[in-house]
Amino acid sequence: MKRVGVFIDIQNVYLTTQALYGHGRINFATLRDFLLRGTDGIVTMSAFTCFDPESDGQRSFRNALGLMGYRVISKPLRRLPDGTIKANMDMDMAVEILTQAEYLDEVVLVTGDGDFKAIVDALCLKGKVVKIIGPDRLTSPELIQASHQYINLHQIEGILQPGTNHSNKPGPVEAESAKAE
């Protein structure tokens, strides 16, 4: 039985969707259904996100992801002495991917971040099939080229959250992340 691990970079998905469409709202139930469609194996889905501990909206978002079947790996934003905010889960996601890799046949990364190219290369050298689901026009070309398959996130039917606020204001999902790095 094929084992597939899906790893989602929530901050990258949010910020790139916001840059392209004026809002960062993704329909994660639609993404889950897309990931599970036609699968004849075991699929695990892990979502990585930073959060503002004072934001009820972000807490609700993480809870909703969990109820949809995603494993949520999160940590609070760090406010630095100069007032800037550090919100990055790339290292946490990389460690999780490499730790699980020996138990997986296929790895799906939902991100456009070229920093993950080295992970993709390492997974391919281990004989893993690697797919990238990345944002339209904002996925690193090097990441696409290193993978076995690229799927445009924003071309998945129904992926943009219906009835969203189309202003340029960050939504409750990652409101503080827009200020991060």
Task: Describe the protein in words.
The protein is α/β, with parallel strands linked by helices and 181 residues long. The chain has helices at residues 10-21, 28-36, 56-67, 90-100, 117-125, 141-146, and strands spanning 3-9, 42-51, 71-76, 78-79, 85-86, 106-110, 129-134, 149-152. It has a single domain (3-179), classed as Rossmann fold (3-Layer(aba) Sandwich). It is built from six helices and eight strands, in the order E-H-H-E-H-E-E-E-H-E-H-E-H-E. The strands form two sheets. The protein has a six-stranded parallel sheet, with helices on both faces. Strands 4-5 form a two-stranded antiparallel ribbon. The longest helix has 12 residues, at 10-21. It is globular, with a radius of gyration of 16 Å. The model is unreliable at 164-181 (pLDDT under 50).
Count the E strands.
Answer: 8
**Order of helix and strand elements from N to C terminus:** EHHEHEEEHEHEHE
CATH architecture: 3-Layer(aba) Sandwich
Looking at the structure, the CATH topology is Rossmann fold
Spatially, the strands of the biggest sheet line up as: 3-2-1-6-7-8
List unreliable stretches of 5+ residues: 164-181
**Class by alpha and beta content:** alpha/beta
Radius of gyration: 16 Å
CATH class: Alpha Beta
Task: Summarize the entry for a quick read.
With 181 residues, the chain is an alpha/beta fold. Helix content is 33%, strand content 23%.
Topology:
Blueprint (H helix, E strand, L loop, with lengths): L2 E7 H12 L6 H9 L5 E10 L4 H12 L3 E6 L1 E2 L5 E2 L3 H11 L5 E5 L6 H9 L3 E6 L6 H6 L2 E4 L29
